[in-house]
Amino acid sequence: MSLEELWQLFPIFLTEHQVDWEEWYLEEESLLKKSLPCIERISHIGSTAIPAIWAKPIIDILVEVPKGTGLGDYKDSIIKMI
């Protein structure tokens, strides 16, 4: 599949920074903290975390877990969130 065909299937739309993005992140952060209490740190990353730039309206969240644990250790809790 060519890059042009990929863009037709999955177009990328950038929008001006939205104040709601921070609120959306905070809502997700709260859900993650309740569902995964062992989380060491949660961060809003990516272009939506930077005020005054255009971005894809997708909130990127980085979840840091304790050393020695992996995503598999949290699988059931994450599935329950869906």
Automatic annotation (TrEMBL):
<dbReference type="InterPro" id="IPR007344">
    <property type="entry name" value="GrpB/CoaE"/>
</dbReference>
<protein>
    <submittedName>
        <fullName>GrpB family protein</fullName>
    </submittedName>
</protein>
<dbReference type="InterPro" id="IPR043519">
    <property type="entry name" value="NT_sf"/>
</dbReference>
<dbReference type="Pfam" id="PF04229">
    <property type="entry name" value="GrpB"/>
</dbReference>
